[in-house]
Structure formats: C-alpha cells, structure tokens
Amino acid sequence: MNKKPTDEAPEYGSCPLCAENRISLFFKDNTREYLLCRQCALIFVPSEYQLSAGEEKARYDLHQNNSEDEGYRSFLSRLSIPLLERLPPRQSGLDFGCGPGPVLSMMLEEEGHSMTLFDPYYRNNPEVLNRCYDFITATEVLEHLSAPGFELGRLLGMLRPGGYLGIMTKMATDLEAFSLWHYIQDDTHISFFSRQTFEYLAELHKVSLEFIENDVILMRKP
Description:
Shape: globular
Strand order of the largest sheet: 5-4-6-7-10-9
Number of helices: 6
Strand content: 15-25%
C-alpha cells in the first residue's frame, strides 16, 4: 500500500487473514470503518459492520448472471482464457462461490473440463470441500469472505500438485483511490486485497503467483 496510517489501534483485534494484531484504522466513511493489517496489507471491515447471513443472501438474490449474457461471459473470459491456456485437457475443477448462476463452470465444461460447484447459499454441499482438484476458481468471491485466511488456506490445500487457483477480485491501491472506490459501496464487500496481500499469501503457502490483469490472479501449487 502507498499510504498507511501511523496510529496503532490494538483494540481492533487481529487480522482475519494472517492473525496479526498490528491493525490500524485505514479509512472511515458514513457507514463503515475499514481496517488495515500491517503484516499482510489486507483491508477489512470489522464484524460489527458486516451483514447477517440473511441480509447477505438477499443482496445476492438480486444478481442476474445469465449464461446467455455475452457481456458476462466476456467478463469471465478474462480468467477462463489464461486458465485454459495453462490446463492440460480434461481436468477436474471446483467453482468455489459459484452463486445462483454458475456461468464460469459452464464455460470451462464447454472446453472439456469437469466442474464441481460450491456456494454457501446456493450449492451448499460441504462434502465437495473434502476432495482434491486440478484447479479451483473463485470469481468475485474473496471480497465477500469474513475469514479469508481460513478459506484461502483450505482452497490451496485442496489443490493437487501443479494445480491452479484462479481468482477474480479488484485490488486496493492507496488511500486516496480507496476513499473514492466504487467497490467499497457494496456492503457485502468486506475484504480488500492488494498486490502486497497476494504476495504475502504466495510466500506463506509457497505457491507461485501471476497477476494476469488488475483483477485476475493465478496461484499455482508446486
């Protein structure tokens, strides 16, 4: 991050990604506070500002993800194309946080890969999280996670050697840009990653890291 507050605030508790307790107030608007972890650079919303499960699902129910929508398919292709370029034929994948309309999994199945779906609200089959996969996708998911450290550790642990975790999430930069960022206006968005955060994760889990675009990231297990 380019700008960091200097005031320490240990009463904020620990980071939900790395458990570090060096947490500072990064930004505050009319509705929420946003805290910054000094170790992994995650920016996150404290639990007291987070929606209940029922409120969160009501927001997601408003999403209209149609498999026939060429604009949405084009958006998802920014992850599917680089992922497909790296995958051998007929791999098994997990679409984590697939939502009510799992368009990305359909696109990958059209290319010959088999897909399993998981979403805590729409495809809540926890047994699929006990399996191993050749690749996992998480598109527009990480910003919704209240326990990103646990979830990302679990996802990377589910990958077979050489497997890919493909991520789409918009990345935070500096304080000025963050204060004007449309991404924080969505009250289901509670975790905001930066390049520094992904670099921390890659080092922690000993995986390789590629920034394909500003919101497209690939992590590969050795």
